[in-house]
Amino acid sequence: MAEDVRNGTPPQGKEASPTSTHTRRDVIAGVVRIGGLVAAGGALGALARGERSESTVWQIDPSKCIQCGKCATECVVTPSAVKCVHAYALCGYCKLCFGLFKDKRTGNTLAAENNRCPVDAIKRRFVEDPFYEMFIDEPACIGCGICVKGCNRFGNGALHLQVRHDRCVNCNQCAIAKVCPSQAFVRVPASRPYLIRTTRHGA
Amino acid sequence: MLAPLARIASVTLAFLAVAAATAQEQKKQPPPEFSSGYFPPTPTEPGPRADTFATIDVAILIVVLMLGTWFLLRTRSRTGVRMLVIFSALYFGFYRLGCVCSIGSIQNVALALGDPGYRLPFTVGAFFVIPLVFAMFVGRVFCGSACPLGAIQDLVTLRPIQTPPLVDHTLGLIPYLYLGVAVLFAWTGASFIICAYDPFIPFYRLGGHWGVIAFGAGLLLIGTRVGRPYCRYMCPYGVLLRWASVAAKWRVKITPGECLHCHLCADECPYGAILPPTPAEPADARAVARRSLTRALIITPALMGSLALLGYAAAPALSTMHSDVRLAERLWAEEQGRVRGTTEETDAYRQLAQPFEVAYAAAVKIRRRFDIGSALLGAWAGLVIGGKLAHLAIRRRREDYETDRGGCLSCARCYMSCPVEHERLGLITLE
Fold this sequence. Notes:
heterodimer, A: alpha+beta, two-stranded antiparallel sheet, 5 helices, disordered N terminus, B: two-stranded antiparallel sheet
């Protein structure tokens, strides 16, 4: 760079300067290129191996989730990639499912206006008298967690929120994780991408 | 007399405790016995789709960059580059929702450096390195062809004006500082600010925070007159590309023959990346340049030192970008009775029944990292400003119109502005 300044003024150096600076510059550029390639390769190699585990995806730790409702509003995917998941093994098959129905029901009936879910994404199918199996209509579910709250309060917490990886675009900075008040969003290994609840809520 | 009573009491208490526990358990609903042979199904666990897409993304990035190089340096075709721009906006932007992108990948690299538990995913590493490797050989082809953020701005560059050099140089410092801040926050695990404040992602995702949408809309509006404002005055990855492309072996050569010094290319370039031939300099130019260079070199360490101190002093404030620090500070304030009430965050922490010391210890650890990182950030800011002054002091000599090695965004607009190019294509005959 210093020689550029020098070449700037003296008119006699005019003919000689372009060729000489060009070659020097080219050599320097070549060295920089090779150095850059080696550095890039080395850095990537160092970062991508060693004791580090495999690559990660985002997931909700159900034991930390407080159902604040932000999963429904903050996700970059519409509707949210967070959905309610039913861990059937934990379900008490309550006759009056508080994931499905509101606490206070108009006329104390089981009519549709008493459904807790704002988008009617919880469905039930008959198993045997008096049991119904609840299941989630995933495309409809918005991940608001209202049903989860109900199930946690009265039932076993078989309903809980999970990031569904067929919908999640695995953002670099998960938009929900950024605002999650209970730090329930964690990076989990991509080979075990779910934290499906296996113990009852509060147990 | 007292002893049996005590025994009865203790037995009763034990019984009550067991009963309470059972009641607690009974509040939860035991699964019923099904007589119809029904067995509760297991919930489905659809796997991440990222992996297959990721490999395809890397392959497409390489193809786009190779085609971009071909159009830029071989066929010298603006149409070709524009097709790639549209493709990138559609694929990397609208279809892949702007993630993964090379600009954001800086943060993953920084996080991987700072957090041994985080592994840099293959795709992200590839998106970080590949455009830089291309830049080392053929300049910023990534900016011109593959970057979805560049693409949306390129498409709205309608009637660009030339920005004054003073504005260019001053605003041109922002990317360096932005890079420093982004690396600091990613390295400490606080936040990925490049992603959070990415102004164009709401357009690709058709939704986002209103503030970011307004910011992006404003940039696009400005971008109709001032070409690519984000790329030139904000993009932190552009800093790395700029430095990589200084070493570029092949790069945009505006005129295919002899330069006519007609200035048409410099008028055409919307990004102020074409440098005119240097005028004949007065006799004392060399001395003046040397003086300003010396001044810059003296100022730089002083700037670095003072800004490092400033950064160190700002570390506690900066560290509140990390949610763990915010949580610990709030918990502390609540425990000390300095604030009234609780927040959603502290309530959630109390529910976990973890000792507060765990939260405090985590916050202290992060705060220490911020002490180091903020001081380094300050020093970096000083180095950037000093380096800019030194760079301005250095006079380069140019015989012809040339592209600015680092600043050229490889859009291929200048080619067709050159009369010599028209002659080469047989469109006109020059005398």
